[in-house]
Every structure is written in C-alpha cells, then in structure tokens.
C-alpha cells in the first residue's frame, strides 16, 4: 500500500511539472498573441480582471479583489487602465448607491474574443500534429484538470464560458 501512495505522489509531481512546463510555454505564446490583438496590450493582471468580469458581470471592486486575491485599491488601479482603454465601465450599483458595478464593454468583449481566436489558432496548429489517441487523452486530462480547479477555487459567476464567449 505504501508503494501505491509513493507511486501516486510521484505521478502527481510529474503531472504538476508537465503542467508547469506547458503553462510557461503558453505564457510566452500568449504574450506574442496579445501584442497582435491590441496596440496597447493589457498586462496579465489586467487580463485576469477581464476574465473575472466576463464571468461575474456587474460585480463590485470588493468581489473583484477577492477573486483576484488583491485589495480593492489594487483592483481599482487595474480597472483604471482597463477603463481608459475602453475595455470596462463602472456604473452605479442597482442595489447599493455607494457601490459601483464593473462591466465589460463591447470593446472589452471583442478584445477577449480576438485574443481567444488567436490563441485557439496557435493551439490548433500544434494539436493537429498529435496522434488522435494523444489528442483524446489531452482533452480528457485537461477537462479533468479544469473540473478539479473549479471545485477547489470557484470564481464568482458561472465557471464555464457560454458559447457566445467562445470563438466559432
């Protein structure tokens, strides 16, 4: 039984290392794609804001800060630049006059859509070279990983993007 636990831990460490390596590779790939989408690319932290707002449209700064693991003042500074780019808007809350709701603008939604299209194109060119069984295993593994992450750290709003947020 101890050998089973040891093998399981080793496999978990190997999977974590492989995931880390892929994430680092994707970060480099994404940086190139983000530069092509907008002349004033957003930072990784600002991109996280856009993702959170896409899933939790109309949230306030406190909720955004919690989702980002940042203080509301830090979240506010991130939003300042995004608002200056026209990617988000702040509007009076329908529930509490003292609060402001954060929403993606059509320009912000368009930015995310364009970014996803470019990313998917880059991924498709690499994935198309994989054997069919490897593609299926990749899909199964990534779907399982997504479920585990969603279960461990849920974000505000729906965790799955609806079909309108995905490229065709």
> Helix count?
6
Which strand-content bin applies to the residues?
5-15%
What value does the average pLDDT take?
82
Instruction: List the uncertain runs.
Output: 157-168
The portion of residues assigned to helices is 55-70%
Assembly context of the chains? single chain
For the CA atoms, what is the radius of gyration?
19 Å
- CATH fold call: Arc Repressor Mutant, subunit A
Listing every helix as H and every strand as E from the N terminus to the C terminus, the arrangement reads: HHHHEEHH
CATH architecture: Orthogonal Bundle
Structural class: mainly alpha
Q: Quick one: how many beta strands?
A: 2
CATH first level: which class?
Mainly Alpha
Q: Span from first to last CA?
A: 48 Å
Gross morphology is: globular
Q: What's the number of domains?
A: 1
Largest sheet: 2 strands, antiparallel
Write the CATH homologous superfamily. Winged helix-like DNA-binding domain superfamily/Winged helix DNA-binding domain
For the biggest β-sheet, the strand order reads 1-2
Structural commentary:
The structure is a single chain. With 168 residues, the chain is mainly α. It has one domain (21-165): Arc Repressor Mutant, subunit A. 67% of the residues lie in helices and 6% in strands. The protein contains six helices and two strands. It has a two-stranded antiparallel ribbon. Strand 1 and strand 2 form a beta hairpin. Helix 2 (44-55) packs across helix 4 (72-84). The longest helix is centred in the N-terminal third of the chain and has 36 residues, at 2-37. It is globular, with a radius of gyration of 19 Å. The chain starts with a helix and ends in a 16-residue tail after the last helix. 13% of the residues are buried. It holds the Pfam family MarR_2. Residues 149-168 are annotated as: Disordered.
